[in-house]
User: Fold this.
Amino acid sequence: MRRMVAEHRLHPAELILPAFVREGITEPVPVSSMPGVVQHTRDTLRKAAAEAVEAGVGGIMLFGVPEHKDAAGTAGTDPDGILQVAIRDVKAEVGDDLVVMSDLCLDESTDHGHCGVLDADGRVDNDATLERYAEMARVQADAGVHVVGPSGMMDGQVGVIRAALDAAGHQDVSILAYTAKYSSAFYGPFREAVASSLQGDRKTYQQDPANARESLRELALDLAEGADMVMVKPALPYLDVLQRVADAVDVPVAAYQISGEYAMIEAAAANGWIERERAILETLTGIKRAGANMILTYWATEVARGLR
Assistant:
């Protein structure tokens, strides 16, 4: 009877698998702070994508980890950079059976670890960064991506990316805007996963955890600039923001259950403090209940298999 009258149900198609692919490795490299998650080789990434399709997962979000980084993050705009190569690999493996998404940000490719290029004073230069984002959008679209996910939180990024995609003939490539991305303490394991070289913090361009109304302002701007989908990140600490965003829009809403959220559950379960599978499903159901149409989660394939 509980199953029959349940108000919310998870579905495999609503899940998106974040995946890391690292240049120059021959075996997957485990992420120590995220048990079960690895930096993939090109071959193991293809296998992970195929497994996601078999499980019924809706999408995959790709993050590239290049061998060489520089101040401008040139690996991010190199047509033969690891992320662009990975997009082509996954498309060759699964075609359109999986929505292929890509992170559109410079932080994985810069030697300073910030999401944009820096000015002479070491501050992120918003407008110069937008030029780089436009170029990134074009090369990712040329590689065959279905959806780009600008995660850098630069002012005006969605509009610049939409214009760049349209001008290059990629009108069908969608934009999943990281609309409300907070300056969170829960990103730590992710930074290990992408071998981040971050110096300082990102408080000047990510949102203050104390603010909620600010997210609605960012939401209005992203929609006006042409966002096709919007995202709240992290998920669990910001369910109130997620609900407010979902109530305010008529476009699909995503939430990212981030690395720190994953790591906490895995660590507690490993110590026998909580029931792992129940905790995973409970958190995902809570995210959906708050209004998410899509959920990025590192458990996507595992959960999808259990739901089928």
